[in-house]
Amino acid sequence: MEETKAVIPMRPLTFGELLDAAVSLLRSQAPLLLVAAFVLAAIEQAVLYPLREWAHLHPPAYTFDWNRHLGEGWLVFCVGMTTEAAILALLGGFAGAAAGPGLLGQRARRRDLLRQVRRRALPLLVVALATAALVFVTSLVLMLPWPWVYGLFGLAAPALMIDRVGPFRAIGRSFKLAGRGTRGVFVRVGAYISWAAIRLALGVGGSAVLEIWLNRRDTLYILAIIAVWAVVDAVAYATLACIDAVLYLEVRMRVEGLDVAIGRLRRLDRPVDLASSVILGAAVR
What is the pTM of this model? Predict the structure, then answer.
């Protein structure tokens, strides 16, 4: 791979620095990450549209009818949380593939990243399905266990790609690292809530602009609303996936001394492999 400036600093980061590094990672692979995110977000909107109609959830914000359709509305809301979790896990695979070269200052070609994701597609799908299943169950229970499940599972996809382990070991790695002092959980949940507010503002604002020219009953308005939410969600999903990938590497620096191990390998003029079992074993020899 061609050498370039690292987009992820090789040291433990503050929350603000972590967000900056995630944006830098997104910018470095924007076409790949944003296109993948838009395709998944568009599929999500297409799946959710008939369910929202059934539950009488109407744009722009798809709020509940608390008096007559609360049960249906809550069920569709939980389905939406489930699809989001699955999408973030899938995109976490793309971001994880890009994060390794981003940390080491290597320019990764898009076709190489796609090839890496394709090789790990089945384990990545297992992680996404496992995450989605648990998020669906926990969101049904008034969202009470959701922050812990969402936070603890978030690093599994980057672990799968960077450490090249199986899906269940990747989930175990995510639990171990995100739960260490709970910092990883709080960072991931905080980022999600922040972007949820941004998405709501942009989605509702875009819908308000559309209503100037289009009637809510028109088919064109419905298609335009779906497109607006797909674009807004795509940007949010791609950013959140990059936060997950950067957070995974940053937590490894804090917990496992990843930055120290890389520095030692470079001083010894040895090749650097970010897989946890490889780099930590090589650094102590």
Answer: 0.91
Number of domains comprising the chain = 1
CA–CA gap between residue 69 and residue 214 (Å, rounded): 27
Which of 134, 111, 102, 130 shows the shortest CA–CA distance to 27?
102
Q: What does the block give as tokens for 232?
A: 């807004």
Q: Is 81 part of a structural domain of the chain?
A: yes
Buried b (16+ CB within 10 A) or exposed e, 113-131: beebbeebeebbebbbebb
Residue 265 in domain: yes
Domain-located, residue 127: yes
CB 121 within 8 A of CB 136: no
Angle between helices 70-104 and 110-119 (to 10 degrees): 120
Q: Residue 3 is inside which H or E element, if any? A: strand 2-3
Helix (H) or strand (E) holding 2: strand 2-3
25-54 pLDDT, tens digit each:
999 999 999 999 999 999 999 999 999 888
User: Does a structural domain hold residue 285?
Assistant: no
